[in-house]
Request: fold
Amino acid sequence: MSDSYSLLILPGDGIGPEVMTEVVKVIDWLQANRGLSFDISHGLVGGSSYDAHGTPLTDETMAKAQAVDAVLLGAVGGPKYDDLDFSVKPERGLLRLRKDMDLYANLRPAQCFDALADFSSLKRDVVAGLDILIVRELTSGVYFGEPRGIHADNNSDNEGGRVGINTQRYTSGEIRRVARSAFELARRRNNKVCSMEKANVMESGILWREEVQWVRDNEYPEVELTHMYADNGLMQLVRKPGQFDVILTDNLFGDLLSDAAAMLTGSLGMLPSASLGKPMANGRPKALYEPVHGSAPDIAGQGKANPIACILSFAMALRFSFDQGAAADALERAVEKVLADGVRTADLMGPEGGTPVSTSEMGDRIVAALAQA
Ligand code: NAI
Ligand code: MG
Reply:
Protein backbone atom coordinates (compact mmCIF):
# COMPACT_ATOMS: atom_id res chain seq x y z
CA MET A 1 0.00 0.00 0.00
CA SER A 2 2.86 2.40 0.67
CA ASP A 3 6.62 2.50 0.78
CA SER A 4 8.42 1.30 3.83
CA TYR A 5 10.27 4.04 5.68
CA SER A 6 13.45 3.25 7.57
CA LEU A 7 13.67 4.71 11.04
CA LEU A 8 16.46 4.41 13.62
CA ILE A 9 15.21 4.83 17.19
CA LEU A 10 17.74 5.96 19.79
CA PRO A 11 15.93 6.31 23.13
CA GLY A 12 19.03 7.43 25.06
CA ASP A 13 19.01 8.10 28.80
CA GLY A 14 16.74 9.19 31.65
CA ILE A 15 13.20 9.86 30.44
CA GLY A 16 14.31 9.23 26.83
CA PRO A 17 13.26 5.56 26.83
CA GLU A 18 10.02 6.39 28.70
CA VAL A 19 8.82 8.96 26.17
CA MET A 20 10.02 6.84 23.24
CA THR A 21 7.82 3.95 24.39
CA GLU A 22 4.82 6.20 23.77
CA VAL A 23 6.04 7.11 20.28
CA VAL A 24 6.31 3.41 19.49
CA LYS A 25 2.63 3.03 20.44
CA VAL A 26 1.80 5.71 17.89
CA ILE A 27 3.94 4.00 15.24
CA ASP A 28 2.33 0.63 15.94
CA TRP A 29 -1.12 2.18 15.61
CA LEU A 30 -0.26 3.86 12.30
CA GLN A 31 1.10 0.59 10.95
CA ALA A 32 -1.95 -1.38 12.03
CA ASN A 33 -4.57 1.17 10.99
CA ARG A 34 -3.24 3.54 8.36
CA GLY A 35 -1.29 1.25 6.08
CA LEU A 36 2.04 2.89 6.87
CA SER A 37 5.05 0.65 7.05
CA PHE A 38 8.19 1.41 9.00
CA ASP A 39 11.40 -0.54 8.94
CA ILE A 40 12.55 0.18 12.49
CA SER A 41 15.92 -0.45 14.05
CA HIS A 42 16.97 0.42 17.59
CA GLY A 43 20.28 1.62 18.93
CA LEU A 44 22.03 3.12 21.92
CA VAL A 45 23.26 6.66 22.35
CA GLY A 46 24.63 8.69 25.24
CA GLY A 47 25.18 7.18 28.67
CA SER A 48 23.40 3.96 27.81
CA SER A 49 25.82 3.43 24.92
CA TYR A 50 28.76 4.30 27.15
CA ASP A 51 27.61 1.72 29.70
CA ALA A 52 27.36 -0.99 27.04
CA HIS A 53 30.26 -0.09 24.73
CA GLY A 54 32.48 2.47 26.46
CA THR A 55 31.56 5.15 23.91
CA PRO A 56 28.49 7.44 23.64
CA LEU A 57 28.01 6.38 20.01
CA THR A 58 29.48 3.36 18.23
CA ASP A 59 30.64 3.46 14.61
CA GLU A 60 27.98 0.86 13.78
CA THR A 61 25.19 3.07 15.14
CA MET A 62 26.67 6.09 13.35
CA ALA A 63 26.71 4.16 10.07
CA LYS A 64 23.10 3.10 10.60
CA ALA A 65 22.09 6.72 11.26
CA GLN A 66 23.66 7.72 7.93
CA ALA A 67 21.71 5.06 6.06
CA VAL A 68 18.15 5.49 7.34
CA ASP A 69 15.41 7.90 6.22
CA ALA A 70 15.21 9.39 9.71
CA VAL A 71 16.67 9.12 13.21
CA LEU A 72 14.43 9.66 16.23
CA LEU A 73 16.28 10.42 19.48
CA GLY A 74 14.99 10.69 23.06
CA ALA A 75 17.52 12.49 25.26
CA VAL A 76 21.02 11.93 26.57
CA GLY A 77 22.88 12.59 29.80
CA GLY A 78 22.43 12.37 33.52
CA PRO A 79 24.27 12.88 36.81
CA LYS A 80 25.73 9.38 36.63
CA TYR A 81 27.90 10.53 33.72
CA ASP A 82 28.87 13.98 34.99
CA ASP A 83 32.41 12.98 35.93
CA LEU A 84 33.25 11.19 32.69
CA ASP A 85 36.03 12.48 30.49
CA PHE A 86 34.81 15.11 28.01
CA SER A 87 35.55 12.82 25.05
CA VAL A 88 33.06 10.16 26.17
CA LYS A 89 30.38 12.34 27.73
CA PRO A 90 26.81 11.44 26.61
CA GLU A 91 26.41 14.77 24.77
CA ARG A 92 29.32 13.80 22.51
CA GLY A 93 27.15 11.08 21.01
CA LEU A 94 24.50 13.60 20.01
CA LEU A 95 27.08 16.10 18.76
CA ARG A 96 28.70 13.43 16.61
CA LEU A 97 25.35 12.52 15.06
CA ARG A 98 24.65 16.16 14.21
CA LYS A 99 28.15 16.78 12.88
CA ASP A 100 28.72 13.59 10.88
CA MET A 101 25.23 13.81 9.34
CA ASP A 102 25.97 17.49 8.60
CA LEU A 103 22.58 18.61 9.93
CA TYR A 104 22.80 22.29 9.12
CA ALA A 105 19.13 23.28 9.39
CA ASN A 106 17.62 23.13 12.86
CA LEU A 107 13.83 23.44 12.90
CA ARG A 108 12.11 24.61 16.05
CA PRO A 109 8.36 25.11 15.76
CA ALA A 110 6.64 27.37 18.26
CA GLN A 111 3.06 26.32 18.23
CA CYS A 112 0.57 27.30 20.87
CA PHE A 113 -2.11 24.78 21.69
CA ASP A 114 -5.21 26.64 22.74
CA ALA A 115 -5.66 24.57 25.89
CA LEU A 116 -2.20 25.62 27.09
CA ALA A 117 -2.31 29.31 26.12
CA ASP A 118 -2.38 30.32 29.79
CA PHE A 119 1.04 28.68 30.26
CA SER A 120 2.60 31.27 28.01
CA SER A 121 4.65 34.10 29.44
CA LEU A 122 2.51 36.35 27.23
CA LYS A 123 -1.19 37.12 27.28
CA ARG A 124 -3.50 34.49 25.86
CA ASP A 125 -4.75 36.69 22.99
CA VAL A 126 -1.17 37.35 21.82
CA VAL A 127 -0.25 33.66 21.59
CA ALA A 128 -3.50 31.77 20.95
CA GLY A 129 -3.27 29.98 17.61
CA LEU A 130 0.41 30.85 17.23
CA ASP A 131 2.20 28.63 14.70
CA ILE A 132 5.69 29.70 13.66
CA LEU A 133 8.76 27.79 12.57
CA ILE A 134 12.28 28.93 13.34
CA VAL A 135 15.00 27.64 11.01
CA ARG A 136 18.38 28.05 12.67
CA GLU A 137 21.70 27.40 10.92
CA LEU A 138 23.35 24.77 13.11
CA THR A 139 26.80 23.82 11.87
CA SER A 140 28.64 27.09 11.26
CA GLY A 141 28.83 30.68 12.47
CA VAL A 142 30.41 32.03 15.63
CA TYR A 143 30.23 28.74 17.57
CA PHE A 144 32.61 27.15 15.05
CA GLY A 145 34.55 29.95 13.31
CA GLU A 146 38.35 30.23 13.48
CA PRO A 147 40.36 31.82 14.95
CA ARG A 148 39.07 31.20 18.42
CA GLY A 149 40.62 30.92 21.88
CA ILE A 150 41.81 32.76 24.94
CA HIS A 151 45.24 34.32 24.61
CA ALA A 152 47.64 36.58 26.47
CA ASP A 153 47.27 40.18 25.44
CA ASN A 154 49.87 42.32 27.08
CA ASN A 155 48.74 45.62 25.71
CA SER A 156 49.62 48.00 28.50
CA ASP A 157 46.09 49.31 29.01
CA ASN A 158 44.44 45.83 29.04
CA GLU A 159 43.77 45.10 32.68
CA GLY A 160 44.05 41.33 33.27
CA GLY A 161 46.24 40.83 30.19
CA ARG A 162 44.04 38.38 28.24
CA VAL A 163 41.83 38.35 25.16
CA GLY A 164 39.00 35.97 24.24
CA ILE A 165 38.28 35.46 20.54
CA ASN A 166 35.47 33.92 18.53
CA THR A 167 34.86 34.42 14.85
CA GLN A 168 31.54 34.77 13.08
CA ARG A 169 32.21 33.25 9.68
CA TYR A 170 29.70 32.22 7.02
CA THR A 171 30.38 31.18 3.44
CA SER A 172 27.86 31.95 0.73
CA GLY A 173 27.37 28.20 0.27
CA GLU A 174 26.51 27.71 3.93
CA ILE A 175 23.97 30.51 3.77
CA ARG A 176 22.40 29.35 0.53
CA ARG A 177 21.83 25.78 1.64
CA VAL A 178 20.05 26.69 4.88
CA ALA A 179 18.09 29.37 3.02
CA ARG A 180 16.87 26.66 0.62
CA SER A 181 15.72 24.59 3.60
CA ALA A 182 13.71 27.56 4.88
CA PHE A 183 12.17 28.31 1.49
CA GLU A 184 11.26 24.65 0.95
CA LEU A 185 9.51 24.64 4.32
CA ALA A 186 7.76 27.94 3.54
CA ARG A 187 6.38 26.38 0.35
CA ARG A 188 4.65 23.74 2.48
CA ARG A 189 3.24 26.44 4.76
CA ASN A 190 2.31 30.02 3.84
CA ASN A 191 5.11 31.07 1.45
CA LYS A 192 6.44 33.59 3.94
CA VAL A 193 9.99 33.89 5.29
CA CYS A 194 11.51 36.53 7.54
CA SER A 195 15.32 36.39 7.61
CA MET A 196 17.13 37.86 10.61
CA GLU A 197 20.76 39.05 10.96
CA LYS A 198 22.63 42.19 11.91
CA ALA A 199 23.53 43.54 8.47
CA ASN A 200 23.74 46.99 10.03
CA VAL A 201 26.89 46.11 12.02
CA MET A 202 28.26 42.76 10.71
CA GLU A 203 29.71 41.91 7.29
CA SER A 204 28.60 38.30 7.75
CA GLY A 205 25.12 39.77 8.18
CA ILE A 206 25.41 41.72 4.92
CA LEU A 207 26.45 38.53 3.12
CA TRP A 208 23.63 36.62 4.82
CA ARG A 209 21.06 39.14 3.61
CA GLU A 210 22.41 39.22 0.05
CA GLU A 211 22.64 35.44 -0.31
CA VAL A 212 19.20 34.76 1.17
CA GLN A 213 17.76 37.33 -1.22
CA TRP A 214 19.66 35.70 -4.11
CA VAL A 215 18.18 32.27 -3.35
CA ARG A 216 14.72 33.77 -3.11
CA ASP A 217 15.01 35.73 -6.36
CA ASN A 218 16.54 32.89 -8.38
CA GLU A 219 14.81 29.83 -6.97
CA TYR A 220 11.75 30.72 -4.90
CA PRO A 221 10.20 33.85 -6.46
CA GLU A 222 6.77 32.90 -5.14
CA VAL A 223 7.93 33.15 -1.51
CA GLU A 224 7.52 36.49 0.24
CA LEU A 225 10.87 37.35 1.87
CA THR A 226 11.43 40.10 4.41
CA HIS A 227 14.60 40.95 6.34
CA MET A 228 14.83 42.15 9.91
CA TYR A 229 17.68 43.02 12.26
CA ALA A 230 17.80 40.23 14.82
CA ASP A 231 17.50 42.52 17.85
CA ASN A 232 14.32 44.01 16.44
CA GLY A 233 13.24 40.49 15.46
CA LEU A 234 13.47 39.29 19.04
CA MET A 235 11.52 42.34 20.16
CA GLN A 236 8.84 41.71 17.54
CA LEU A 237 8.68 38.04 18.48
CA VAL A 238 7.77 38.97 22.03
CA ARG A 239 5.53 41.89 21.01
CA LYS A 240 3.48 40.34 18.20
CA PRO A 241 4.63 36.79 17.36
CA GLY A 242 1.68 36.17 15.05
CA GLN A 243 3.26 38.37 12.37
CA PHE A 244 5.82 35.62 11.62
CA ASP A 245 5.54 32.33 9.78
CA VAL A 246 9.02 30.95 8.95
CA ILE A 247 11.97 32.73 10.57
CA LEU A 248 15.40 32.03 9.05
CA THR A 249 18.47 32.96 11.05
CA ASP A 250 22.05 32.06 11.90
CA ASN A 251 23.38 29.83 14.65
CA LEU A 252 23.88 32.44 17.38
CA PHE A 253 20.72 34.47 16.84
CA GLY A 254 18.75 31.27 16.29
CA ASP A 255 19.87 29.97 19.68
CA LEU A 256 18.36 33.03 21.37
CA LEU A 257 15.28 33.36 19.17
CA SER A 258 14.28 29.70 19.46
CA ASP A 259 14.63 29.64 23.25
CA ALA A 260 12.57 32.82 23.53
CA ALA A 261 9.94 31.43 21.14
CA ALA A 262 9.76 28.27 23.25
CA MET A 263 8.65 30.27 26.25
CA LEU A 264 5.83 31.81 24.26
CA THR A 265 4.20 28.43 24.03
CA GLY A 266 4.58 26.78 27.40
CA SER A 267 6.26 23.69 28.81
CA LEU A 268 9.56 22.13 27.80
CA GLY A 269 7.68 18.83 27.67
CA MET A 270 5.78 20.08 24.61
CA LEU A 271 8.58 21.19 22.29
CA PRO A 272 9.72 19.13 19.30
CA SER A 273 12.61 19.75 16.93
CA ALA A 274 14.10 18.52 13.68
CA SER A 275 17.60 18.86 12.27
CA LEU A 276 17.93 18.43 8.53
CA GLY A 277 20.90 18.03 6.20
CA LYS A 278 21.55 17.51 2.51
CA PRO A 279 19.03 15.62 0.40
CA MET A 280 19.94 11.93 0.08
CA ALA A 281 19.72 9.89 -3.12
CA ASN A 282 15.98 9.37 -2.55
CA GLY A 283 15.45 13.13 -2.35
CA ARG A 284 14.71 13.13 1.38
CA PRO A 285 16.98 15.16 3.63
CA LYS A 286 19.25 13.54 6.19
CA ALA A 287 17.21 14.01 9.34
CA LEU A 288 17.29 13.74 13.12
CA TYR A 289 14.18 14.37 15.19
CA GLU A 290 14.28 14.94 18.94
CA PRO A 291 12.44 16.70 21.72
CA VAL A 292 14.05 19.94 22.91
CA HIS A 293 14.14 18.76 26.52
CA GLY A 294 16.91 16.72 28.15
CA SER A 295 16.89 13.48 30.12
CA ALA A 296 15.14 15.03 33.14
CA PRO A 297 16.91 12.96 35.82
CA ASP A 298 14.74 14.55 38.52
CA ILE A 299 11.67 12.68 37.24
CA ALA A 300 13.22 9.75 35.35
CA GLY A 301 11.83 6.30 36.12
CA GLN A 302 8.70 7.68 37.79
CA GLY A 303 6.25 7.62 34.88
CA LYS A 304 5.84 11.39 35.13
CA ALA A 305 7.46 12.55 31.89
CA ASN A 306 5.37 14.27 29.26
CA PRO A 307 5.78 12.28 26.01
CA ILE A 308 4.24 14.99 23.80
CA ALA A 309 7.52 16.67 22.75
CA CYS A 310 8.81 13.33 21.49
CA ILE A 311 5.49 12.45 19.85
CA LEU A 312 5.38 15.83 18.08
CA SER A 313 8.98 15.26 16.96
CA PHE A 314 7.77 12.08 15.31
CA ALA A 315 4.94 14.08 13.69
CA MET A 316 7.67 16.27 12.17
CA ALA A 317 9.36 13.12 10.85
CA LEU A 318 6.07 12.04 9.26
CA ARG A 319 5.84 15.42 7.56
CA PHE A 320 9.43 16.15 6.54
CA SER A 321 11.00 12.72 6.02
CA PHE A 322 8.13 10.47 5.08
CA ASP A 323 5.83 12.81 3.12
CA GLN A 324 2.95 11.74 5.34
CA GLY A 325 1.49 15.20 5.92
CA ALA A 326 -2.02 13.86 6.54
CA ALA A 327 -0.79 11.47 9.25
CA ALA A 328 1.28 14.29 10.79
CA ASP A 329 -1.78 16.56 10.86
CA ALA A 330 -3.87 13.79 12.41
CA LEU A 331 -1.27 13.20 15.13
CA GLU A 332 -1.11 16.91 15.95
CA ARG A 333 -4.90 17.07 16.08
CA ALA A 334 -4.92 14.08 18.43
CA VAL A 335 -2.52 15.89 20.78
CA GLU A 336 -4.67 19.00 20.60
CA LYS A 337 -7.82 17.00 21.34
CA VAL A 338 -6.33 15.29 24.38
CA LEU A 339 -5.14 18.62 25.78
CA ALA A 340 -8.54 20.19 25.10
CA ASP A 341 -10.09 17.31 27.05
CA GLY A 342 -8.02 18.41 30.04
CA VAL A 343 -5.62 15.45 30.05
CA ARG A 344 -2.40 16.67 31.68
CA THR A 345 0.92 15.22 32.71
CA ALA A 346 2.36 16.72 35.90
CA ASP A 347 4.38 19.39 34.06
CA LEU A 348 1.15 20.77 32.57
CA MET A 349 -0.75 21.16 35.82
CA GLY A 350 -1.85 24.73 36.36
CA PRO A 351 -2.51 26.45 39.69
CA GLU A 352 -6.07 25.06 39.65
CA GLY A 353 -4.58 21.60 40.27
CA GLY A 354 -6.16 18.29 39.35
CA THR A 355 -4.85 14.78 38.93
CA PRO A 356 -2.03 14.31 36.45
CA VAL A 357 -1.88 11.30 34.16
CA SER A 358 1.21 9.13 33.76
CA THR A 359 3.49 9.07 30.73
CA SER A 360 1.86 5.85 29.60
CA GLU A 361 -1.72 7.11 30.05
CA MET A 362 -0.91 10.22 28.03
CA GLY A 363 0.38 8.02 25.21
CA ASP A 364 -2.72 5.82 25.37
CA ARG A 365 -5.03 8.83 25.26
CA ILE A 366 -3.23 10.24 22.24
CA VAL A 367 -3.47 6.92 20.40
CA ALA A 368 -7.19 6.73 21.26
CA ALA A 369 -7.70 10.28 19.94
CA LEU A 370 -5.75 9.38 16.82
CA ALA A 371 -8.32 6.71 16.05
CA GLN A 372 -10.91 9.53 15.85
CA ALA A 373 -8.78 12.23 14.24
P1 NAI B 1 15.98 18.84 31.17
O1 NAI B 1 15.32 19.32 29.93
O2 NAI B 1 16.33 17.42 31.24
O3 NAI B 1 15.04 19.19 32.42
C1 NAI B 1 14.70 20.52 32.82
C2 NAI B 1 13.42 20.48 33.68
O4 NAI B 1 12.29 20.24 32.83
C3 NAI B 1 13.43 19.38 34.72
O5 NAI B 1 12.79 19.83 35.88
C4 NAI B 1 12.64 18.28 34.07
O6 NAI B 1 11.97 17.44 34.99
C5 NAI B 1 11.64 19.05 33.23
N1 NAI B 1 11.29 18.30 32.01
C6 NAI B 1 12.08 18.13 30.89
N2 NAI B 1 11.46 17.37 30.00
C7 NAI B 1 10.28 17.03 30.53
C8 NAI B 1 9.19 16.23 30.07
N3 NAI B 1 9.20 15.62 28.87
N4 NAI B 1 8.12 16.09 30.89
C9 NAI B 1 8.09 16.69 32.08
N5 NAI B 1 9.07 17.46 32.57
C10 NAI B 1 10.16 17.62 31.81
O7 NAI B 1 17.29 19.75 31.37
P2 NAI B 1 18.41 19.65 32.52
O8 NAI B 1 17.82 19.27 33.81
O9 NAI B 1 19.18 20.90 32.40
O10 NAI B 1 19.39 18.49 32.03
C11 NAI B 1 19.29 17.14 32.48
C12 NAI B 1 20.24 16.28 31.66
O11 NAI B 1 19.82 16.28 30.30
C13 NAI B 1 21.69 16.79 31.66
O12 NAI B 1 22.53 15.67 31.69
C14 NAI B 1 21.80 17.52 30.34
O13 NAI B 1 23.09 17.52 29.86
C15 NAI B 1 20.91 16.67 29.47
N6 NAI B 1 20.34 17.39 28.32
C16 NAI B 1 20.22 16.68 27.16
C17 NAI B 1 19.64 17.25 26.04
C18 NAI B 1 19.47 16.40 24.85
O14 NAI B 1 19.58 15.18 24.92
N7 NAI B 1 19.17 16.98 23.70
C19 NAI B 1 19.16 18.64 26.05
C20 NAI B 1 19.26 19.27 27.34
C21 NAI B 1 19.86 18.66 28.42
MG1 MG C 1 19.99 27.27 23.73
Remarks:
- The radius of gyration is 21 Å.
- The longest strand covers residues 4-12.
- The pocket of magnesium ion (ligand 2) is lined by residues 255, 259 (CB under 6 Å).
